[in-house]
Amino acid sequence: MYNGLEVRVPFCDHRIAEYLYSVPWEMKEYMGMEKGLLREAVKGLLPEEVRMRRKSPYPKTHNPEYRAIVSKILKKIADNNDSPIYELVDSAALKKLLNDEFSEPWYGQLMTGPQTMAYMIQLNYWLEKYRVKVSV
Question: How far apart are CA 30 and CA 95, in angstroms?
Answer without folding.
Answer: 37
